[in-house]
Amino acid sequence: MRIRLLFIIIFLIPAALFAGLADTMWLRIYPGSDSLSGDFNQASDIGFDRQGNVFVCGAGEKGSATNTDMLVAKLNSWGETLWVRSYGGIAGSEDDMAHGLAVDSLGNVYLVGVTTQAAPYDQDITWLKFSPEGNLLWARRSMLPDDDIGYDIEIGRQGDLYICGAVTDTHFILSRYWVARINPANGDTVWTRSYILDTLAFNTRRDRHPDFVMSDWDQWDNCATALAIAPDSGHIVTTGFGYSDNRSYQVWTMKFLPDGTRRWQHEHWWSLDYDDAGFDVAVANNGYIYVAGFEENDYNWYDATLLRYAPTGGTPTVRRINDPMDDEDYFFAVTLDDSNPQNVYATGAFYQSTTSRFDIITYKANFALTPLWGTAGTIFSSPQDDYGFDITYNQGRVYVAGQKGNDLVVLCYRSNNITPHDTLWTFTYNSPYNQEDFAAVVCARDSNNVYVAGQVARTSIAGSYTDMVTMRLYYPYPDMGVGQILAPAGTVGYGDTIVPQVRLVNSGNSIARFTTMLRIGNDYNQTVNRTEPVYPGDSVIISFPEWVAHPLGDIMVACTVAMNGDREPLNNLLIGAVQVVSHDVGCLRIVAPVDTVDSGIAVQPRVWVRNYGTIAENFDVRFKIGDGYVSQQSVSVNPGESTLVQFSTWVPTSVGVWAMRCTTMLGRDINHSNDFQDGQVTVRVGERVWPYGWHEVASVPSSPSGRPVKDGAWLAFDIDDGTIYAAKGYKVGDFYAYNIYTNSWVTLTSWPAGTENKLPYKGSTGCYGDGKIWAVKGYNTPGFWCYDIETGEWRQLANVLPGTSGKNPKGGTDLVYV
What residue range is the signal peptide (predicted)? Predict the structure, then answer.
């Protein structure tokens, strides 16, 4: 079934694109089940598989309006929606949401989030597995009393699966810091671990949609907000916060072995009775752990904070970022680069007291947390509040996703240590309704495959319905070139009808739509507009209207391609040539045989043929004599030249006049009037057919009567063609012709009984004359007959007169033709 009402394809010009280096290759909007109503559609995590397909998850109204589900969508790198799937709790719930995803090496995607259940009415941590085709392979829930929520998910070094979040402890009426290992084959829990920092703390505050928005984090008492896998050991590291009755919230970080053993835990706080929290965690290749979050200082303001733990835990190294006026500053996300040792990057919000607004802070530090982009990092500001929500690194580039005022914003930095550090490029998107839009997450395969997801407004009413947005950013390098002129090319025959074809190649990294023009000679000029997309690296064959090949000679063929923004003009023109040639071969004359030849004497037929065209030709020549001789030879003849063709030997056996024809055979020949040369040859009886002396030859056949030759048999010789005719006699009508050249008999039409009602016997005789056989039947009958050699028919003539004797022919009869 085709997915309907999924991601609406929008090709938009960004609201602002500074530096001119990055643009949207595509942008997709998911409006839920009803684009006119509904409530909440938002992306929370993004990733890709080894084939470059993109997965985005979050909350979506797929089932019905005002009813959110855990939502996941798979798109290919060109933005085509491959599938969208949702999983929800009870109908009418607006709280179901996928918070994190992970993709394994086979392309399976795992989700963790929250769904609302009916009995009892509470929220469950929910984790799901979908196949690469979008089939739900399993679904599991925490099924604990009261509200639980899942925040993050990671795949371990051996394919093991880990999730984290918070569950509610009904005894202490507190939420627990929760971590679990999941069997990826069936979704069952291998182990779970949950912790309460201080059971004396009593906090019953809840929130149905806790996320990265900084005003929601403290709606849980103890919570694991983020999870990471140590590349060197495969150990599991989580961070978040715990609530202490004495010290309020504290950054709470833990490390586990794959078997569930907790190696260590550490609580970090600024001072007594202040709030501190960890929002994200990353583990370096050397096992060091970096936590991003904030601390509340002595002035009751928040400082953006980076912590670095050794692999063995202990007291962390701390780096605090505080604006000069001690206002609110936060880190929300952290990432690492590929240097050795790795540098650490964090992003969040930095409050400017002078402007009374938040700016996006992007901070870089080395292994020891020494700042590399200035003590306060690099700041991106606008006239409104700006926030950095996610950060990632790829191939020397640092990407930040966030919010600029009411606009979605993506920042790209070079990873070098220049200070002050400015963006390589900045991309912003403002939905048509000019309400709150933001980028929640970002991931990158390379600089041409930067994927961003978040939320955009659906109406012009502040705080109203929202849509999920996903986009691909890249460095546009449009380049469409002419790869090859396929036709016409080489040589073509004059007057041939050709369908011109050209292969064009998208050598850029942008989807291409273009116009191409083909010119042939002086009077062919055609244009084709290609509106269907051609993807980078692909080629397409364009066919033009037919061209009739003309004039003779070398003709120039030129193809051009034009596309808006094409960056490489050198491949926009390709010039070639086609040779229009005349294909014309024919027979000049028959050399042999001519006039008269003797039967039985071998003759070698020969003819002259000529190439009247403008190109060397390979063709067949056929020679035919009468109905019994056909010979064919292949020849090669250069233009303007002739050649003598010799055929297989012909031995004439039948006397007479025979028609001859020489035929040249060339499929592309444009002039058939000279393809034939006709003639005739007369075959006469040769002077010596047989050697001297007696020779036994083929016997008279016994069929059709089965009788031998006996009384009444006779022979007649056709001197014109050397054929001997024979009647068997013996009261049968058997009649034959003997070929003296082939030593073979042919059975002819039997001699009829006729009006005398008798067959030849004693006294029967015959002779040849004027192309016919004349015969009397004998057997005491007056029958007189004629056999027509041409028609093969017997005809009864007037009877032999009885004469004065009054007797009919019998033994001793003879016949002669004069």
Answer: none
Q: Which domain holds residue 410?
A: 89-453
Helices (H), 155-239: none
Q: To the nearest 10°, the Cα dihedral for 14, 18, 20, 26?
A: -30
Other C-beta atoms closer than 10 Å to the C-beta of 47 total 17
Shared domain check, 215 and 138? yes
Single out the residue of 783, 777, 782 nearest to residue 762, CA to CA: 777
Judgement on whether residues 550 and 601 belong to the same structural domain of the protein: no
CB atoms within 10 A of CB 675: 18
How remote is the C-alpha of 453 from its chain's centroid? 28
Res. 5 pLDDT band, cuts 50 70 90: very low
Q: Are 111 and 70 in contact (CB under 8 A)?
A: yes
Classify strands 397-404 and 386-394 as parallel, antiparallel or unpaired: antiparallel
Question: Does 58 map to a domain?
Answer: no
* CATH code of 595's domain: 2.60.40.10
Residue 18: which of 428, 391, 472, 379 has the closest Cα? Answer: 428
Residues ≥6 apart with Cβ < 8 Å to 391: 333, 334, 335, 345, 346, 347, 362, 398, 399, 400, 401, 442
Q: Is residue 249 part of a domain?
A: yes
pLDDT tens-digit map of 89-141: 877 677 789 999 999 999 999 999 999 887 666 889 999 999 999 999 999 99
Structural tokens at position 662: 């020489």
Q: Are residues 572 and 601 in the same domain?
A: no
Same domain, 630 and 727: no
Q: What is the pLDDT of residues 516-565, one digit of tens each?
A: 999 999 999 999 999 999 999 999 999 999 999 999 999 999 999 999 99
Distance CA 522, CA 556 (A): 9
245 phi-psi bin (left φ>0, alpha ψ -120 to 50, beta other):
alpha
Coil, strand or helix at 219: helix
Note the pLDDT tens digit of each residue in 661-675.
999 999 889 999 999
Claim: this prediction has a pTM higher than 0.85: no
Q: How far apart are CA 266 and CA 241, in angstroms?
A: 10
Q: How many helices (H) and strands (E) does the chain have?
A: 0, 60
HEC readout, 87-119: ECCCCCCCCCEEEEEEECCCCCEEEEEEEEECC
446: tokens are 């390379």
Q: What is the distance between the alpha carbons of residues 196 and 560, in angstroms, rounded to a whole number?
A: 71
Ordered strands of the 539-543 beta sheet? 480-487, 501-506, 539-543
Q: From CA 127, how far away is CA 68, in angstroms rounded?
A: 16
Give the count of domains, the chain. 4
Question: Are the CB atoms for 249 and 267 separated by under 8 Å?
Answer: no
DSSP assignment string, 114-136: EEEETTTTEEEEEEEEE-TT--E
Closest C-alpha to 51, from 109, 121, 129? 109
